[in-house]
Amino acid sequence: MIEEMQDEARSLLSAGEYGHALAKFSVLREIRSRREGPYSPMYLSNLHDSVRCMSHLHLWADATPLCRELHGKYVRTHGRGEADTVDVAKHWAWALVHLDDYPPAVRLYLLTADALWDVDRDQAHRLLGAALTHRHGLEPETLVTPGEIDGVGLRHADDVLADLTSLRTHLPDGAELDRTAFDRTSIDGLVA
After folding, report:
1. What sign has the CA pseudo-torsion 78, 122, 105, 159?
2. Local mean pLDDT, 10-residue blocks, the chain (192 residues)
3. CA angle 7, 1, 33 (to 5 degrees)
4. pTM of the model
5. Are strands 189-190 and 148-149 parallel, antiparallel or unpaired?
6. What contacts 127, CB < 8 A, 6 or more positions away?
């Protein structure tokens, strides 16, 4: 029965039926959490699919606690720069900027960009652009300067700072940037 429900949920997600898929994935999450535990691969997969559905449905406030849980578990089990962790970080940051909660979004963009620096510099660059675009009075450079953010050491602080400086020269400042922020970014970061 659970495998049939899993197949149906995936089919709904693939078909773009996000509301129905979310309902199925939510039930699956509860079942798997109880039967298999909150770190089981299938529980994490169903949680991740729930986050994807919520992003499509613009359920930002509902997605945020799920993203926090999933990101924390992925960081512990996969690492910050692994594809699943990065995907959830992007969903979480995107939800936060839609909720006008900019400081944690900017920190998340910076930490994820640092983790990606060696494996996907283009993606890191886009995330740094998003950090600058959604800064709303914050100065990302000052967050990077001590070499750690939220107790996490940055491995590429100098490179991140240099890229932020370069990006800043191509973006408007102040009110114009705030007004056009969503025109300049997507869930994947700065739009070229």
Report:
1. positive
2. 95 98 98 96 97 98 98 96 98 98 97 97 96 91 92 96 93 79 91 78
3. 85
4. 0.94
5. unpaired
6. 90, 93, 109, 110, 112, 113, 116, 189, 190
